[in-house]
Amino acid sequence: MSVYNRFDPADRWVSLQARSGRRLQSAELNEIQSLALHRDKRMGDVIFGSGHIIEGGQVFVSPPPGNEAIIFPASVYFDGMIHDIGEKRIPITRQGEEIIGLKIVYETVTHETEPKLLDPAVGYANFGSPGMDRRKASPEWVLNDPAATPMYRLANGEVVTAKVPPELEGFTPVLARRTHDTSGSFLVSGMDGFIEPAEGEYVNLVIEAGKAYVLGYEINRLVPTRIRLRKSLDARSVSDEVKVYKDAGSGAEPVYTLNSKPVKAIREITARVQLQTDVTRQTGAADPLPEEAVVDIVRVMYKDKNYVKGTHYQLVDNSVDWSIGNDRPAVGDTYSVVYQFMRQMVQDEDYRLDASANGVAWLNKMRPVPDSLFNVTYDYYLARKDAFYLTPDGQIRIATGQSDVHPPLPPVPPDILELGELHFPPASAEVAVVNYKPKRLTMLELRSLLDRLERAEYNQAMLELERSAQIADPTTQKKGILTDNFTNFERIDFGKGFDAMIDPANQTLQLPATQTFEQLTFESGESVRRHERLLTLDYTEQVVIEQSYATESLNVNPYQVFGAQATIRLTPSQDAWVEQTVVSNVVWGWWDAWWGGSRTETRVILDEHIPFIRQRVVAVHGEGFEPNADNLQATFDGVPVALQPAAGYGAGTSPGTVKANGAGRFVASFTIPENIRTGTREVRIFNYV
Fold this sequence. Notes:
Helix content is 10%, strand content 38%. By secondary structure, the protein is mostly beta strands. It has a 6-stranded antiparallel β-sheet with strand order 17-28-19-25-21-22, with no helix packed on it. A 4-stranded antiparallel β-sheet has the order 8-7-9-10, with no helix packed on it. The longest helix has 30 residues, at 443-472. The chain is extended, with a radius of gyration of 42 Å. Mean pLDDT is 84; it is low at 164-168 and 586-607.
């Protein structure tokens, strides 16, 4: 059976017009549907864009050792229609980049597979007869399918980017183009990078949560991102670097530092060494020595007689040649020879690599001839510079540079937002991060900059007047006049009770201030009622209006997408504190004329940025978990923490865990681990089923 459909958007059909007296064609019914679907798709694409998640669709990757991604129920606009998709568990490998995509499979349903499609009109001639077939769409989540529309991107088991509502993707390009034309790509907040140690040859680059606009498109990263990077372990070879060996005598043997560092490994050392051996006189003119590459014969001695080089013997082809004289030992006599030859030294027997000094340390077996040269062939590590940037689709990418002694910064692609650069020292985990902070300025910040510029112009004019007055006015007329730019302590008299603070960067003077932060606590009382974080006066509920009869039903969730997840609440959810450091100011120099010596003042207090969160106890309230869920454990920024259940709640079977009650709730507390960076941090509560 054939299905006819002549609809083609290129024909520009607007509607089908029925004419009296003409029969209805099956193709025309199909064309009416195709025309309506095409019109809906055009409008939907303008508003949403294909693959847009309207509701639900949260993705959760199970923690190790679990290897699956859970996608909660979702409503997705795709190919002109809104499809409802149930929960799906997809096995993943946690290796490299993995793409979870959406694929729509279309199939035709006939009365043969679905008997309910037969005509249900009882009492009519066509009862039980077949009618139209149905075209069925079956959406499904698939992994690494090139034919699917990419929806979620995972890197080593971590969700990197995901499509989340609500984005009107048809309008977004227009707004993005206008934003980019006026402001370019910029950072709103966060997304600073820093380095965390990792195992083996790697370090972790951590990118803070933040918000940015790239090519005008909003990128909002809610949690920090960790990227594993390899240290700078590339090496370069140096061939035959020359060193002069000095005899240390009875003292400690020196370490011969190599020119290029840090040294990775020594490949080869050739040195001129001296050896004494016994040689038996043979019938020919020359007696071969046991070593090759002989460079000199120092002494030949037989019994108590020393033979003279050049008169009695000479060096020829690694042998003692007696052909130049008549005075020589008899055939079969054994004589002693001291000679020097070039030897390839043996590592860990003749020498070793001193990694701390990046040099050659000689051992006690065999050493070079004093004041002779030895050649070292070795490898040394190189440095590297990388760049990290943000792409328009929300990915953080790394541009890896070329390793070198003085490495250049690698080029980055166009149409991205550069976030910073990474300086990798040779074979070291002490990676330096330079954050560009390409942050946009608000009108208030621009106003502040304008005010600072005006003050700078005013101060510059005052300095010019002061300089002119100092040059032109007589000294006697300057009595009682004092100027100070508040950048140093030169004009401060500490003996008169000076107790203020100076900010040299902003050139300001401030009186001492004491700052204290108090955590508000709630004391229960009869006149106060608490609603989680909100306190109100006590009240009595009273029914004002009541409707005990239903008039109609309303489906508040038309897509049947629930996506229920457990929720947690932290108390406190944020923290603020001030740490003060007392800096001693040593006054010397011209003070000697007044005080007779130097003295120390400890009156200057400097505030600085604290990079780590202070350790404190945090309460966590959880709800929406499975009833009686056991072994609920927690991590703070990926670091496991021990949960201590509150009164009325039970501990889990495993140490450091808690158990939810019958309603799926629990209250517990934990202590923030040490060395956790300040900023937005992720707290996760989970268990293994």
